[in-house]
Design a protein that fits this description.
With 418 residues, the chain is mainly α. The chain is 72% helix and 4% strand. It has a four-stranded mixed β-sheet with strand order 1-2-4-3. Strand 3 and strand 4 form a beta hairpin. Helix 4 runs antiparallel to helix 5 and helix 7 runs parallel beside helix 9. The radius of gyration is 23 Å and the shape is globular.
């Protein structure tokens, strides 16, 4: 393949992916607008029309912002690659440092920081305009800046040693470097799973042991039935940043802990909270977390192997606007362009995730009353302003959870079978 041919492939793929994302978004907007005037029959007794319309307007606002973000991301990628941005940054970094490893690390860090800075207006608009308009944002600008600085420092503390290790291995381990890098990535990922609950998450939120004794007794009984052991039950001050509610379990091995947003506990009764937790435990019982980790690791191994092949060609670099090939720039180019070349995998990954959600729902319906989980989900849809009428094709590409009507119907069927 020649550099010109790869350039044309890249441009065509970027154009088709961008147009596909915009087309899916327009379908989504049209579908929501067509169903905005009426609450779906399955929810009419539980969700008011004004709440249904709020969800439609909220989703519409986010989707429109997302369309602008898609266009901006495409333009930024073109500027970095064919526009010569990465080559220009690499030239400056090469002048700053004499060691090739330092040059490569500097180029990657500068590109990532510049991308974050340029994309910040979208995050700010999402948080302080859209989320605020619909009553969800509780974050001050000072807290937003503090979170960004913390994230930057944590990213540097964890990411820079990892980046150094990866580039060093790529340079020193010969043609099979990708296997060594993959092993380092696996160890690093597992380490993050272990330390996140106890060391990283508390830097952003306050976690306090659950104080409601009746609720704690119900939950501990459920945990015993499900054979689940955890480090503890915690309430997170999610209301510090947002009015959205959620629950999750995090960690790995002995560091597992169950976390409830304080906003969730305000709106659900004990039976509904128990049902939500049973769903989360369903993921654990069906080994979904382990399966997802295994899939992620397998895909990362395949991608690193592919990068090992590409970085040995000249057309890969030149086709993306790089005249001075290097290990670091190969790594940077690969992961910047990977999303557009892998876009068609989105429906497969989403379907895999939705399969797990159905399985977790079925498990929850066996451990608790299916009606309680239905009621809890309806309240969550309402409180989080989640649309009940997403476009089916859009949902196929993007939604990790089944659409509301499909999910409720599945739970009702499970209830009839019990």
């Amino acid at each position: 393949m020649t550099a010109t041919q790869f350039t044309l492939i890249f441009i065509a793929t970027l154009a088709l992916t961008t147009l596909a994302r915009l087309w899916l978004a327009r379908r989504h907007l049209a579908h929501i607008a067509a169903h905005r005037a009426e609450v779906p029959a399955a929810f009419r007794e539980k969700i008011r029309l004004e709440d249904h319309q709020k969800a439609a307007d909220y989703t519409t606002a986010k989707t429109r912002l997302g369309m602008l973000s898609v266009l901006f991301d495409a333009a930024l990628l073109l500027a970095f690659t064919l526009g010569g941005g990465i080559q220009f940054i690499a030239s400056i970094c090469n002048a700053w440092f004499s060691a090739p490893l330092a040059q490569g690390m500097a180029a990657i860090v500068v590109v990532l920081l510049l991308s974050t800075l340029l994309e910040a207006p979208f995050n700010l608009y999402q948080t302080f305009v859209i989320e605020a308009r619909f009553g969800f944002n509780k974050m001050t600008f000072a807290l937003y800046i503090m979170d960004a600085l913390k994230g930057l420092l944590i990213g540097a503390a964890l990411g820079l040693p990892l980046l150094f290790s990866v580039l060093w291995l790529m340079e020193r381990m010969g043609i099979h470097w990708w296997l060594y890098v993959w092993l380092v990535w696996v160890v690093f990922s597992l380490l993050i799973l272990f330390i996140y609950p106890s060391f990283i998450a508390p830097l952003f939120n306050k976690f306090t042991p659950m104080q409601n004794e009746a609720m704690q007794a119900r939950i501990e009984a459920l945990l015993a039935r499900c054979g689940f052991t955890a480090q503890g039950l915690f309430v997170m001050d999610g209301s510090k940043r947002s009015a959205h509610g959620n629950a999750y379990f995090t960690g790995f091995g002995k560091t597992k802990r169950i976390v409830f947003f304080d906003t969730l506990l305000e709106h659900l009764n004990i039976s509904e909270i128990e049902a939500i937790l049973a769903h989360e435990l369903g993921h654990f019982k069906r080994r979904h977390v382990i399966k997802r980790i295994a899939v992620t690791f397998a895909m990362s191994l395949g991608f690193l192997w592919l990068l090992g092949l590409l970085m040995q060609t000249t057309w890969f670099y030149q086709g993306l606007g790089i005249n001075t090939p290097s290990t670091a720039l190969a790594l940077l180019l690969f992961f910047l362009t990977l999303p557009i070349f892998s876009f068609l995998l989105s429906p497969i990954m989403s379907a895999y995730s939705r399969k797990h959600e159905f399985e977790a729902d079925t498990y929850a319906a066996r451990q608790t009353a299916a009606g309680d989980l239905v009621n809890a989900l309806v309240k969550l849809y309402q409180d989080n302003a989640s649309t009940l009428t997403p476009d089916p094709l859009y949902s196929t590409f993007y939604d990790s959870h089944p659409p509301a009507m499909v999910r409720i119907a599945h739970l009702q069927a499970a209830h009839l079978q019990t």
